[in-house]
Write a structure and sequence with these properties.
Strand order of the largest sheet: 1-2-4-3-5-6-7-8
Helix content: 25-40%
Structural class: alpha/beta
Strand content: 15-25%
Mean pLDDT: 97
Distance between the termini: 27 Å
Number of helices: 8
Radius of gyration: 16 Å
Length: 229
Amino acid sequence: MHTLDSVEVDGVELTYRVWGAAGDPPVLLLHGLGEDGVDWLAIAPRLAPGRRVYALDLRGHGASDWPGEYALEQLRDEVAGFLAAVGLERVTLIGHSYGGVVAYLVAQRFPHLTERLVIEDAPPLLPQDPPLEVPPRPTGRMAFDWAVRTQFTEQRNAPDPRWTEGLSDITAPTLVIGGGPASHIPQELLADMAERIPDCRLVTIDAGHCVHQNRPEEFLAAIGEFLDA
């Protein structure tokens, strides 16, 4: 069982789900692009015994507000604001793909908030050559604001170089989980990311990009070993 709630951060209403007992060590789950907190429904209850697990709908996704502006700096700072709003001083951050990018930006900008960090098959923020195409919006109703996709693509094409340089500023023990050759994320770039983070280990689970969906048992085993170390 979990609860569904929302909180306002700088005028943006953010929806989140919670599992586990209040007072247990907190974990914050950040979903991938186009997903929301529902993406973690099979994982969060398994993490919850002994932990307080939060799954946030990032701005522009799911039941959270869709304000139209989705710069990564805004998402990074908004996660910090969310933690303050719900009274969490220090958490384990677990992020998949787009959420993994947000998670490692939080960890480098707000090291005091980050107990541990798990990055699941998230793209490094390196200039893209040739540039990624900004895709046209599909027709029909969507579960997220398509402007998230277009603005993220633009920032991936011309990222702030401090985002890569800042990986060396991450102080939290970190686990990078790669999806192996079936993933569209170049795995050698994940290895490079892991080398830049001072206290980091890299684990490859041959599951493709969505490791937590395709190989949940192996994903949970890797997370459990890391969190209990």
